[in-house]
């Protein structure tokens, strides 16, 4: 039986042998290629896991640093009030309470900024659409970040009676992050202007600072990106302000982008529909709705 099989194989024409050889080589090449691809995928997955771990560690370190500062201030002023409030004057007590309130607000803003992006990515960010006065909102944020007598001021030049249909809390969050960015990196002149552009209303936060370097223009809207990084960072923050502003604006049907200011400085523009958009991505319903943006 075996001899007959060998004899049959030997009787095959050369073309059949060539075809069999070609198929065998092709199978070997495909097998080697699959192994190489699998190894490359494994290597890429390992590198992504390492990068994700580094990002997580950097994020935890930055958040821990930023949380520690207001918590230390709150604890220190609260302990001082608790131990010596009887010997303090009314003016001193009011001053200490003012510091505690300011640091508490900053702490709340930081926590809200940390939570908003994963909520957006999960499609579970809550919006509450209202009709509100944009000028009052912007003035409130500007006075909070640039208080009178603080050495720096933000001029607000908005037409009277501008009302929008949106979530005022989220609009305030965008404006706060843009003004906070101007306060950290801008010069001594910060200006907020607004104008209607088609069906959108555009709010512009400009400053006379050094502007954004060419090498950073494409990265300033990425998570955790700061113009000054590491232990040498000269400004507080975890690099979430601009990414959050853009993601929130887009979730509400608008956008945030950067423009150069002549002759020097930056212009960060925030657009928002003049009327609440009616779509599956942003549903104006009361009292609260879940964004279905993915």
Textual characterization of the structure:
With 294 residues, the chain is of the alpha+beta class. It folds into two domains: 122 residues, Signal transduction histidine kinase, dimerisation/phosphotransfer (DHp) domain (Helix Hairpins, Orthogonal Bundle), CATH 1.10.287.130; 164 residues, Heat Shock Protein 90 (2-Layer Sandwich), CATH 3.30.565.10. It has a five-stranded mixed sheet, covered by helices on one side. A two-stranded antiparallel ribbon has the order 1-9. Helix 3 crosses helix 6 and helix 5 runs antiparallel to helix 6.
Order of strands, widest sheet: 3-5-6-8-7
Most strands sheet: 5 strands, mixed
CATH homologous superfamily assignment of the largest domain: Histidine kinase-like ATPase, C-terminal domain
Radius of gyration: 30 Å
CATH level-two architecture of the largest domain: 2-Layer Sandwich
Helicity, as a percent range: 40-55%
CATH topology of the largest domain: Heat Shock Protein 90
The chain-level structural class is alpha+beta
CA-CA gap between termini: 67 Å
- What's the overall average pLDDT, rounded? 78
> So what's the CATH class of the largest domain?
Alpha Beta
Indicate how many domains the architecture comprises. Answer: 2
The ordered H/E elements are: HHHEEHEEHEEHEEE
Query: Helical stretch count?
Result: 6
**Global shape:** elongated
Spans of at least 5 consecutive residues whose pLDDT stays below 50 are 225-238, 277-294
- Count of β-strands: 9
Features:
Heat Shock Protein 90, 294 residues, 6 helices, single chain, elongated, Helix Hairpins, 5-stranded mixed β-sheet, two-stranded antiparallel ribbon, 2 domains, disordered C terminus, 16% strand, alpha+beta
